[in-house]
Automatic annotation (TrEMBL):
Listed Gene3D superfamilies: 3.40.50.2020
PANTHER family documented for this protein: DNA UTILIZATION PROTEIN YHGH
Signal peptide extent: none
InterPro entries reported for this sequence: ComF/GntX_DNA_util-trans, PRTase-like, PRTase_dom
Protein's organism: Algoriphagus halophilus
Family stated for the protein in its record: Belongs to the ComF/GntX family.
Highest taxon of the lineage: Bacteria
Name this polypeptide is given: ComF family protein
Length: 228
């Protein structure tokens, strides 16, 4: 009873609010309110995971089977605000909730049996230290919980690369060339490679190629958000 009193008192003084709209959250809500969850710009990539504009974007760059994204990225939209929260506002739990939400959709189309392990795209240690966590790994944790698949840190980022934001597609490819290395054997497993966002696909393709070159049976891609 006393713990409940202190919780209610703390919530009154420091109310939990939705990471997107700022509304006060109910006890059963995590990082996003039900209204924001219901209006997220979700995609239908999981309905056609092997043939969509994301797989077309990376065709000929990496031999990837499926490519999916939970949200459609739009400038100044909800997906961009979510990514900003993850990268700059210390919201790791938001990444976990997004992963759990997307795993529900993936389970609806029974894709789980396609993978043996989830591998997050790594941050450089310096960047991870500054941020305190890897947002792609937090998203992977949510997917892992919902899909009942293990997570392994299989890759490392050897170089501290410049931001990709204002680079062309060719410049992005060059920026991540030979950046990633294997730190744990793939053991011929089917890998679900996870990142926060796909723009040109340069980072994901670079990681996928390292995994495939080192014996991964298949590599598929999932991101929190992606633009056309």
């Amino acid at each position: 009873m006393r713990l409940l009193f202190f919780k209610d008192f703390f919530d009154l003084i420091f109310p939990r609010t939705c990471d997107l709209c700022g509304r006060n959250l109910f006890d059963f809500e995590s990082c996003l309110c039900k209204i924001c969850i219901g209006t997220l710009p979700r995609t239908l990539y999981h309905a056609m995971p092997s043939e969509n504009d994301l797989t077309q974007k990376i065709k000929g760059i990496a031999n990837v089977g499926m490519a999916m994204s939970f949200l459609r990225f739009t400038k100044n939209g909800k997906s961009q605000k979510i990514l900003h929260c993850l990268k700059y506002r210390n919201k790791p739990k938001l990444g976990i909730q997004l992963g759990e939400l997307y795993s529900n959709q993936l389970n609806e189309v029974d894709l789980t049996n396609n993978w043996d392990v989830i591998v997050p795209v790594p941050l450089h240690p310096i960047k991870k230290y500054r941020r305190g966590y890897n947002q792609s790994e937090e998203f992977a944790k949510g997917l892992s919980h919902g899909l009942q698949l293990p997570i392994e840190e299989m890759l490392e980022r050897k170089k501290f690369t410049e931001t990709q934001t204002k680079k062309t597609r060719i410049q992005r490819m060059e920026n991540v060339d030979e950046v990633f290395a294997l730190i744990r054997p793939t053991d011929g497993r089917r890998i679900l490679l996870v990142d926060d966002v796909m723009t040109t696909g340069a980072t994901l393709c670079s990681c996928a190629n390292v995994l495939l070159a080192n014996g991964a049976k298949t590599v598929d891609l999932i991101t929190i958000a992606a633009g056309k």
